[in-house]
Design a protein that fits this description.
α3 packs antiparallel against α4. The protein has one domain. Helices cover 87% and strands 0% of the residues. It is built from four helices and no strands. With 174 residues, the chain is mostly helical.
Length: 174
Amino acid sequence: MTLPLSLPRIFKIGYMFDISSVNLIEAMLAPGIMISACGLLLLGINNKYSLVVNRIRVLEEEKLRLISQSHRQGLEDEQKRRLNSIQMQVIRFAHRIKLVRNTVFFYTMGVACFIISSLSIGGDFFLKSFDLQPVSVALFLLGMISVLIGVLFAANEVWKGYEIVKIEIVESEL
């Protein structure tokens, strides 16, 4: 096959590849990009997980200190309000941590679906006797649905975080 002389060298190299292998690589990149996107989402949500866990620990330490003080000498009204606020916040933080857990679970399931989808695309190329394209598409869609569910849990978690901040604001106004 003769190549036009006006094409740059980089395009001439591309003619050496069988077009089906180039298509295979392109097809396998879509799940790969989604794996990277989910990795970024997981990085962000894991940071939020750490913050929520640390906040629960700090509140629990303060609660134990106030309870210990109440047994020794009793609590003033302000300290009673603070203890009540802490207890309400811890309950809501416990719910938030479950939402973060669910978010991580569904993001991770999405990554697994994208990996298996990418592998099935490659398997479809090499295993000519099996038609794995429907499996590849189904796994990719399942991964997208899983990520969507994870995003919905993350959005719910953000809303619950706002409710906890409102508790702090109300307490500080009293």
